[in-house]
Amino acid sequence: MPPRGKATLQDVARLANISPASASMILQKKPGVSFAPETISRVFAAAEQLGYKKSSATGNFLRPTIAVVFTQITSLYQTYVVQSIDQKANEMDMDTVLFEYHGDTNRLIRILHSVYRLGFAGVILAMSPTTTTLDPILELAQKIPTVVFDPLNRNADFPLDSVKTVPAQSGVLAAEHLLELGHRDIAFLEVDRTNWAKTGIRSLQLTGALSVINSRSDAKMTIYTLPRPDTLRAGSFIETRLMARQAAEEALKNPHHTAFLCVSDYSAYGVMDTLAAHNLRIPEDYSVCACDNIFPSDLPGVSLTTVDQHPAEVGASSFELLYQRISSQAPTSGDRITRVGLRSHLVVRSSTGAPRKV
User: Fold this and answer.
1) What is the mean predicted confidence (pLDDT) over 242-247?
2) What residues make up the domain containing 185?
3) What average pLDDT score do residues 152-164 get?
4) Which in 57, 223, 250, 314 has the greatest CB count within 10 A?
């Protein structure tokens, strides 16, 4: 037993057989959160027995704090997700700390261990669990509330609360739109998948678009690949625009293309740069369509047709699931798993129109 006055929130939670986040809320007498009377008595009894000082009720933090773990932040879409989580957390008198692991499994496992040792109230994992990361994630979930935002929708069976989008749907919506306008020869710009899992989000967007194109005997799509940016270098997502300019130059060598379909709004901006440099008009000469709907795409000088994947809703839903788990003390696995699915929708602006005559 720790010396009197040296006990931690984790010690109290362990003795009371409750999560550290729930113990913190009880000790703070947080309004709007209800616990069974016997649970409240058990926590205060444990704190008294251990000589726990209420002033350290939030462990290593001034307020209950959640961890948000991303593979990497490389776009405004992901920034919107993080901001939404942080705003919702602040509304509930909680703080957030952001981690990135850049696809390094060992780094992710170190982060997961730190998240538990530092006394976080819960964790949102913005990633798709794989065979090598699922066990460490499930181990953490047995200790603190855990929610997964799975952007790849790759594993529907893991026993964790999750928020999912359907990236392949983005490709389907964009390709269907271009076909409906009359385009039959489309250039698709994507990021190099050599160092990504073959089921990565960009591959799923491409898979969705191909499923539509291949269903038409009179349509074709040529893939132009952008080099994968170094996500550990500041501004790497801006490089996507620069690389898209080069890919667009290559695509313009094919006189039969009438439209560009891009995996991100940033790559679409690069295409627009190149078309402007060649005095080509949008959409009279080339239509441009993308998948993101970040705020610059709605500016009058851009007006990009793109697929909205609802990043603010993703962040809000992820936090709400986590907060429910923290408040209810429900078991991490079993029959009470909640899965939230968010569907994308196409936002049509002035960058797409009927194809020119080839």
Assistant:
1) 92
2) 167-309
3) 73
4) 314
CATH code at 263? 3.40.50.2300
Q: Other CB atoms closer than 10 Å to residue 230's CB: what's the count?
A: 10
Domain count, the chain: 2
- pLDDT tens digits, one per residue of 90-143: 998 899 999 999 888 899 999 999 988 888 889 999 887 878 888 889 888 888
174 and 41 inside one domain = no
Nearest to 139 by CA among 152, 125, 126: 125
> What distance in Å separates the CA atoms of residue 129 and residue 143, rounded to the nearest whole number?
18
Q: Indicate the pairing of strand 146-150 with strand 287-292.
A: unpaired
Output the pLDDT for position 147.
92
